[in-house]
Write a structure and sequence with these properties.
- Keywords: Hydrolase.
- GO terms for molecular function: phosphatase activity.
- InterPro entries: Bact_Sigma-Reg, PPM-type-like_dom_sf, PPM-type_phosphatase-like_dom.
- There is one protein chain.
- By secondary structure, the chain is α+β, with helices and mostly antiparallel strands.
- It is built from eleven helices and 18 strands.
């Protein structure tokens, strides 16, 4: 990105003054009437205004700002007085933080300035991520309600809500967003690999959050020491057992993707599960289940393998998702999950988790879910120029099924849902 004068001003600004700097700079440079920044709340239901003098929140699903947020493209509207509101998504490496709205007079707006405004929006997003180390302003703006202490701990532990590279795109969400306790996810990307973990600490409230925090920190420590995922699981198993003596455990699914080939190493140590949408077919990808972290402290974990192909969509869910039952006693994972995956196939992965969790809530009905729920969606594009994975003829053995003792692929969800 070119270092424009506005980008330089943002870089030099005090952490709490970023919006003020953008507002004054855009007014001076482009003749804007006003500038407003709104950030997505933790529940992904509203866009919350930043700053004490800003206008109120707006709904993500029904507002012009929400349309820009959802489409991840600029969207223009006109006011009754004829002014033009330019709504610009604030996106950082696939993670959609919010929307910057620039109000222009009818005689000052011109389409050629749109790319310049988009670059300003991107620069603002980068500076917000840096500024959050030193101010609570942007964290507070995301809150439509007070977080529980457990939820505060969990959200601070997360890497973000989305991530995108040329080989893949990820989106994830947790519910209840303001009272989550044991569910968590983590990822890390290098030049050659994507490491992904889906975690569920047993218990409720702060105790579950503390347990998950220990496990995720131990997994990160092992990963950063250069251990493979089996070694990461072993070290985290030892750390949790040393602290809790076998009285508490953490369920985790660890995956390491080769970005060049789509080959995936997997350690299944508990309850998180994986479903794959390939074409119009949904199937649960099952692995040889091993002991959750912390039960004995000396468990030796085995790695299994499977392969993803360009165009595959993977959906990961915690037990609070697939075990949630309808009033009639039907678990969401039996068929409704597959139908929702098919129905949301045209949405970007950043929007799929929220859509699935809304469908889950409708499936469950009243009263509200009594367990926390996590959904992570990963779209696999493959590395450009890489050799394609050979197709498997219809009716033959699926060579993409997990390798290893007990590994199997359940096609029970295949074909469920709308055509």
């Amino acid at each position: 990105m070119d270092e424009t004068p506005i980008a330089q001003a943002l870089r030099a600004a005090a952490p709490h003054a970023l919006v003020d700097v953008v507002r004054e700079a855009v007014k001076d440079t482009y003749g804007a009437v006003d500038v407003q920044l709104r950030l997505a709340d933790y529940g992904m239901r509203s866009l919350q205004a930043v700053g004490p003098d800003a206008e109120g929140s707006v709904c993500i699903h029904t507002s012009p700002q929400g349309r820009a947020f959802g489409s991840q493209k600029p969207y223009m509207t006109r006011t009754a007085a004829g002014a033009v509101d330019v709504h610009l998504p604030v996106i950082i490496r696939g993670d959609n933080l919010g929307v910057l709205t620039v109000r222009m007079g009818a005689d000052t707006y011109a389409e050629p300035i749109l790319p310049e405004l988009a670059r300003i929006s991107e620069a603002l997003g980068h500076e917000i991520l840096v500024a959050e180390r030193d101010t609570d302003l942007y964290v507070l703006a995301r809150r439509a309600a007070r977080l529980t202490l457990a939820a505060e701990m969990q959200w601070q532990l997360l890497p973000g809500r989305a991530c995108a590279r040329e080989e893949f795109a990820i989106g994830a969400h947790l519910e209840p967003a303001y009272a989550i306790f044991g569910d968590n996810y983590d990822w890390s990307v290098s030049a050659e690999r994507l490491t992904l973990t889906i975690t569920n600490g047993m218990g409720e409230g702060v105790q579950a959050a503390l347990l998950t925090n220990l496990a995720v920190s131990a997994l990160r420590n092992a990963r950063r020491a250069g251990l493979d995922i089996a070694g990461q699981a072993l070290l985290a198993d030892q750390a949790v057992h040393a602290q809790y003596g076998g009285e508490a455990h953490v369920a985790v699914l660890l995956l390491s993707f080769d970005l060049a080939t789509g080959e995936v190493d997997v350690v299944d140590a508990g309850s998180p599960r994986l479903w794959r949408l390939r074409g119009r077919s949904v199937s649960e990808v099952r692995f040889d289940a091993q002991l959750p972290l912390g039960m004995f402290g000396d468990t030796v974990y085995e790695t299994q393998h499977f392969t993803v192909r360009p165009g595959d969509r993977l959906a990961f869910g915690s037990d609070g998702v697939y075990d949630a039952s309808s009033p009639g006693g039907v678990n969401y994972g039996e068929s409704a999950l597959a139908r929702t995956l098919l129905a949301t196939s045209l949405l970007p992965p950043s929007q799929v988790p929220g859509a699935m969790l809304r469908e889950l809530s409708d499936h469950h009905g009243d009263p509200a879910l009594d367990d926390d729920a996590l959904v992570l969606c990963l779209d696999w594009y493959g590395r450009p120029g890489a050799a394609p994975v050979p197709d498997v003829p219809e009716g033959s053995d699926d060579t993409d099924a997990p390798e290893g003792p007990g590994g199997s692929e359940d096609p029970a969800g295949s074909g469920d849902g709308p055509a």
